[in-house]
Amino acid sequence: MSAYSVHSMRVMKLYRHSLKNLQNWAVHRDLFIERGFAMRAEFDANKFVKDPRLVEKIVSDGEAKLAEFRHPDPYTLPHMPGGSKYQRHPTNGLGPGPEINRIPSWLNTSAGSLTRQLLELHAHWDWQAIARRQLQPFTYIDPGMIESAIKECFKNDTMYCARLQVVGGELHLSDYRAVFFDRHYAPARLMPMLDVLRRHPNLPDVDLVVAAVDEPRIRIKVDRTEWPRTVRLYPGFPVAGGGGGLPPPLFSSTIDSAHLDLAWPDFSFYMPRRPHKLRTPPWSRLQPQMLEQSAAISWADKIELAVHTGNVGSSYRKRLAAQAKISPAEMLVNELFIGDHGRINSTCATINRHRTGGFQQHLCYMTFTEQCSYKYLLNSASIGYANKFKYLLLCGSVVIYVRDGMTHQEFYELGLLPGIHYVSVPDAAAVPAMVRWLKANDAYARAVAMAGRARMAALTTDAVADYVAELLKQYAALQTFRPSVAKGAVPIRCEDDLWRHYARDPYWMRLYLMQDNATCTRPIAAGAKLGPPGYGGAYAGSKPRCVASHDLRSFAQPDVCSSRNGKPLHQPGTSFADFESFPYPSDGERYDWQTDRWKK
């Protein structure tokens, strides 16, 4: 058979594969169709070429272009638990089946080079596609929808909710919820905007509401109870009390398909850089540290147990603990509460309880390095949302995602794939079978562990800022209005502006101030004289309003912001101004936030 005939057959095979891939494997079908038309035109233009070297180059280029939009693996692999061939046709130990071994001819297939190329695939995030996917339900965003989002803030069951406006490159903040006990972490919920404005100074003007709470809020679940409630809230026409009658684009820390919320980075990415009560360092410091520590543990030295350490209070984790009791050869659940840290001083390794499976309570703790010494790590639902998934992926171990109760996702999870970056099981009872299968298919398990680690290694704080910037650019394109600064909004330019704004007293403030202005969205001019109240930032003496600082529901603190006995109201670090006025602190404040000193 001539070389020309062979290449003709490859072209026909490539065409048939393109049709199949369009139906089953394409990530972005619109781009795939456009690429398909271009490829067909290119082949038609070169169909009379007979130089075998030139034909080989044309066909190889076509294969590479076809593979560019190919979905890595949208289905459960046949030989994995739940797959069509599980237990009927055991694999030979080389992996989950022939699907994993398909290598296109244009790849450099030397072992080391191929590994690097495959891992490089996981180092790039398609923020444009992830943003477009979230905004797909919205054809426009009007002022009425912003008012609807603000109404959602006043339902008094949130810890934090604020309106952020970027006008002319300057950030302005209006607090609607900033409860006292959460003030330590309020700045962490806004820090993404400072990063965005530093990296993307030409960000278009935007007006948005950030709830930044554990769970999404704008429900669209089709249910006999939920759906009528949704229709009453958002009937599609203006409603009494404000709002445009349409569901708002509210930003929350997690999202799911039963809500319309848009994903905002969780506060754990921007934890305080100074010591704080949760003790977790910010992602910018912790991520490289974890990568370095996990790299010191070889795959061969990892312990072949599936491990969870931490809180076991939720019903889902209780089922995990119960399963560990009866499956000690595959699982270890180590129960530990935050309050145990001052009481328990031994790691599980030092008391030789790290290789014993089963369920153990309040005996020991595990350092991050010790957690990474296990080959399999369990990610399961907590009482609220648990943000540990990203930390587990950094270990270079296989993360087993227990889907029972895990209804919400953070933004980066939209760029992860089960079977590629982690493996998933339906519930705790399925964990032992998955562990046994991974042990029997160690090469595949290691590939998943490497892919998950490579994916999270690329999720730097710069990448987080790029995600937010892309989401806001697409969001801004949907706005039907030109944003203008709300009355009573406060300007924010630096991290320390946030600490000064949220501080209840100067002693508290100095625990968190950085005093370096490195986070400012605009550089401080050389030789500029810095002084109070902002010291180079935009802070002008503002404080959160009382109505934002407390739960005003009838069973909580309904009268805490009401006048009593005709006396002026006062609470430290609190404003009693209305939302039309700048929120200066109350007259009874003993500290002068304008001059940064105690009043005489």
Automatic annotation (TrEMBL):
Region listing for Disordered, in residue ranges: 562-600
GO function term, MF aspect, one: transferase activity
Q: The Glycosyl transferase CAP10 domain covers which part of the protein?
A: 202-482
Comp. bias regions, Basic and acidic residues: 587-600
Q: Short name of one Pfam family for this protein?
A: Glyco_transf_90
Is Transferase among the key words of this record? yes
- Asked whether the keyword Transmembrane helix is assigned, the reply is no
Q: Kindly state which keywords UniProt assigns to this record, in alphabetical order.
A: Transferase
Q: Which InterPro entries match?
A: CAP10, Complex1_LYR_NDUFB9_LYRM3, O-Glucosyltr/Glycosyltrsf_90
In terms of superkingdom, the source organism counts as Eukaryota
Q: Which family does it belong to?
A: Belongs to the glycosyltransferase 90 family.
- Output the PANTHER family linked to this UniProt entry: KDEL LYS-ASP-GLU-LEU CONTAINING - RELATED, PROTEIN O-GLUCOSYLTRANSFERASE 1
* Descriptive protein name: NADH dehydrogenase
